[in-house]
Amino acid sequence: MTVTISRLYDNYNNAQQAVQRLEAAGVPHSDISIVANNSDSWFNTDKKVDRDRDGVDDRAEGAGTGAGIGAGVGGTAGLLAGLGLLAIPGLGPVVAAGWLAATAVGAAAGAATGGIVGALTEAGISREDADTYAEGVRRGGTLVSARVADADRSRLDSILNESSVNLRDRSASWQKAGWKSFDPASKPYGAEQVRKERQLYGGSLR
Hints:
Protein name: General stress protein 17M-like domain-containing protein
Order of helices and strands: EHEHHEEHHHEHHH
Helix content: 25-40%
Largest sheet: 5 strands, antiparallel
Distance between the termini: 36 Å
Number of strands: 5
Strand order of the largest sheet: 1-5-2-4-3
Organism: Bradyrhizobium niftali
Shape: globular
Domain General stress protein 17M-like: 8-41
């Protein structure tokens, strides 16, 4: 039996390390996914995207349809080699790779729950947790999800737990400030809002 395990991280570096630990533990990169907020264009400034002769990021131009999202993932390069840019309703611009991001783009076309929440619930994540994961990405975080054998869940859970967000505590904190659930129709956080959120919970991106 296959189950989906997910964790939210306050910065991309911690999520990146979690992905690398999963791969080292034997999880195929085709079964791992990462979705990171890119409202402050950190992916662009790190020059991790391909640009054409005019300096335009072609993948960003096609973000709405998921262009460039992990299309090159394969071989032995690992999941992170397939990072691409896209936009997900309610989240805005994200950097992502893997099955969850591809599912979210498809779910966004017709799912009433919204792309990312629809993709997570379809994968077996509870609606409550899916809302919190989505809101976490909206506020500047990074989500890592993996499809794993149920027998391996405990071992791989411990790998993902390192440096991850306590989902219940984070949700409670937002609820005290008036948050109820993720709204795919809500306005994505801007760069300044993301910066403040990261300072509040997780410090810098790296």
